[in-house]
Please model this.
Amino acid sequence: MPRVKVAPKQEAVKLQSLLPNAVEEIRKGGVGEELKEYCRTRVHIVTIGVDMGKSLWACCLNDPDKVKKSIRRFRRKGKEQAFYKWVKGLRHRHPDTVFHVVYEAGRNGYTPARELRRQGVYVHLIPVNKLKVVEYGKKVKTDRIDAEFLSALDVLSSDLPRVHIPEISLECDKGLLREYHRIEKDIRTKNHQILSLIERWPVSETAPNKHLHHDVWRDCVAEWRKMGDVQIPESELFRIELLLDRMKADEAAKIKLQGRIDERDEEHRQAAAAKGEPYLVDILESLKGIGITTARAFAWEVGDFARFAPGKFGAWLGLVPVAHESCGMRKQLGISKAGNKELRRRAVGLVWLWKTWQPDSALMKKWGSRLEKGGRIRRIAAVAMARELMEAIRDLIVDNKPIEGAIKFSERSK
Model:
């Protein structure tokens, strides 16, 4: 359908009333076909696909009024600022045009998206691994082809997968949590390595068989050294001491990082109180079975729960089954495993905590009998309950809808 020409001032007024937050609403699926059709037929939309490499940014400008696509390349040092300046110039020369920039999620993170949004450009951060690309024969891959592919995507489609662009403070908080979990994993790994070393020698019969603090391990090494090489060779003790040196640094970093996380937690709590809003971590932690670690993980990793439409939060976590249909036969495959792996693991783990601390909740009455069984039935029930529990938590936070039968810490004495 050809686009209907409207006077620039009338167009600007119409856009001002229809387009604020339109991209976010389209992503949620909450925008009606009337707005989509208006955007497609009456608004001049230009899509810029950007393939961002280390030394080259290849850009493809897709203007529906022109048959040929325009290709632009920005190279080496200063390519980012040159690209931002180019986009700013486009908006200045074409004030009645709505620009959409599409680029792949990857090495450049959210910085380009934030800078472009400050210029008034709609930005779509795309997880390319979720796009279905049909290939025939040998595929030729170049930066130009990738940029053209991105520019040809339908930016008004609610089916187009997008990556949420968080606030800077939330992104930094997620980085703190992930670094904390990485250090914890490194400490566990070093404990495993020490245990595997001492298992090869006679000292293993009296040695600890669990994870310990580095100071306790050093006391053990001192005792083993007194026994001589009969129990454990000196070279092996030297290797253990090297592991303990790194473990000591990790444990010190963990304590320092925990202090910083607690500080940020208190800052968020005070900011929420200043706005007269409940703090998200406190809402989650008020439920029996959800501790501070899990509450922070969901609050800081997810951020804005309101960006998920009802029934979509479980799908974002990858807890929904994948449908498979062929020749009229249809079946459900395993879960999609999309989204954040750590949050999905915590969601399934929360099922067993819920089983212990919320036995009278509606979810446990529905799934409890199947969780008592073993094998495949138990695994399927755990994932299905995790999906429903995540949706219930989303409804609690966004719609203030209580979880049926769930007990809060303040209600235990009633």
User: Anything to note?
Assistant: The mean pLDDT is 85. The first strand starts at residue 44 and ends at 52. The beta strands are 44-52, 56-62, 70-75, 97-104, 122-126, 321-326, 329-335. DSSP finds 15 helices and seven strands in the chain.
